[in-house]
Amino acid sequence: MPAKIGKSVITHAVLWSFLVGLAVSIAIVWGVGLRQVLDAFRHASWIVIAAYLLVSFLIAVSLTIRWHVALDAYGVRLPFYTLFIYRLIGFSVGYFTPSAHIGGEPVRALLLQKQGIPLKVGFSSAVVDKSLELLFNVAMFFLGTLLIASATGFALVARVSLVILGLVAVGLAAIFLYHVFRRKRLLVPVLRLLRVHRLRNWPRVQHAADELEELITHFYTRKNRHFRRSVLINALLWALMFLEYKFALLILGYDANLFSILVFLTGVGIAYAVPIPAALGVLELGQLSAGALLGVAPAIGVALAFVIRARDIIWTLIGALLLAIFHLNAFNLYARSVVAARRYNFERFSLELRR
After folding, report:
1. HSE toward the beta carbon, residue 334, CA cutoff 13 A
2. 131 vs 5, which has greater pLDDT?
3. pLDDT in tens, 22-66
4. What is Dmax (Cα atoms) for the chain?
5. Buried (b) or exposed (e) across 254-277, using 16+ Cβ within 10 A?
6. CA–CA distance, 279 with 314 (Å, rounded to integer)
7. Which of 115, 119, 125, 121 is nearest to 344 (CA)?
8. Is the distance from CB of 307 to CB of 247 less than 8 angstroms?
9. CB under 8 Å to 144, separation ≥6 — which residues?
10. How many angstroms separate the CA atoms of 341 and 275, rounded?
């Protein structure tokens, strides 16, 4: 019964967050004016749109390469196209979960298990891949907040608020890195703080958490070559993201400089951290706010959110199509991943973590 109640609470929370986000999105578009937003696309050029789509594809390829590097650190080698497909499927599931695009990691782990990869290894690789992304994003977000704070043209309240958010993000990242490199446990204390230790199967959960954390620590402390490669890939990804937003804004007839792009990216980072499916409403609000800081017409900010959402929806639809091709259902797939995590015999895989 408690499990059913918990599932019902989660379902209602997701539904209400979606409805709130939808209401905010409609209110913003209504306030700015749909005709003005659509009019922002009058400068669109097919060449610029093609360039935007090409850069978006290169970003998807680079993200897959980074995951490939994480898997290679654990001695796992799979065809690139397989990982590309699995990452897209994970993205399509994670996009509609209110968890900052993190919901697809268990799905990726389960898909890897279909290739004979132990679940804990697949999940560790997905978590390492996501943590590398978040750490680099935090660094760039903090840089963005510092640049915005140093700009005298912005309101003091906005500058102070962004600096506080940046410091909080850096603080959380520092706590994570401290525990990883000092080989101190972090996941189990967090689970205890969330009262997970009151569950009847807590010993199994604790053992799985320890195994997972050991594998993650192994990557950061023992696989220096792979870590350096991941950092380089992240640097390439950010260069591509700047180029992607350059083309996205050119579609709208706005020739943005590096500072302006960084401000818009900061708005996107904040939006996707809010626990609302597909960042509905908060993405529009984030880009509208970023545009306001830069003195850009409100319609440009909202139109940029439309471009970003269209890109994400395209990738999500491709991932959903791949799910259909593999005769899988996104919700059943996630449920099966939870069941597999509970039943998995961790003794099947032996990894010398001290090498």
Report:
1. 14
2. 131
3. 787 788 888 888 888 889 898 888 999 999 999 999 999 999 999
4. 62
5. bebeeebbbbbbbbbbbbbbbebb
6. 15
7. 119
8. no
9. 162, 166, 262, 263, 265, 266, 269
10. 24
Residue pair 110/122 in contact by the 8 Å Cβ criterion: yes
Q: How many residues does the chain have?
A: 355
Task: Collapse the DSSP code of 78 into the 3-class scheme (helix H, G, I; strand E, B; otherwise coil) and give the result.
Answer: coil
Cα(317)–Cα(49) distance, integer angstroms: 19
Distance CA 271, CA 279 (A): 6
Encoded tokens for 212:
């997972």
Which 8-state DSSP code applies to residue 253?
Answer: T
Amino acid in the structure at residue 181: F
Instruction: Please tell me the distance from the alpha carbon of residue 249 to that of residue 45, in angstroms, as a whole number.
Output: 11
Tell me the pTM: 0.81
Tell me how far CA of residue 296 lies from CA of 36, 129, 187, 287, 304, in angstroms: 13, 35, 43, 10, 11
pLDDT of residue 241: 92
Question: Are 246 and 238 spatial neighbours (Cβ–Cβ below 8 Å)?
Answer: no
Residues 6+ apart with CB under 8 A from 42: 253
Instruction: Let me know: does 41 contact 78? Beta carbons within 8 Å.
Output: no
Residues 152-172 have pLDDT tens digits of: 666 777 778 878 888 888 898
Under 8 Å CB-to-CB from 189, ≥6 apart: which residues?
none
pLDDT of residue 232: 94
CA–CA separation, 207 and 198 (whole Å): 15
Q: In angstroms, rounded to a whole number, what is the distance separating the alpha carbons of residues 170 and 172? A: 6
What confidence score (pLDDT) does residue 283 get?
80
Task: State how far the Cα of 109 lies from the Cα of 14, in Å rounded to an integer.
Answer: 23
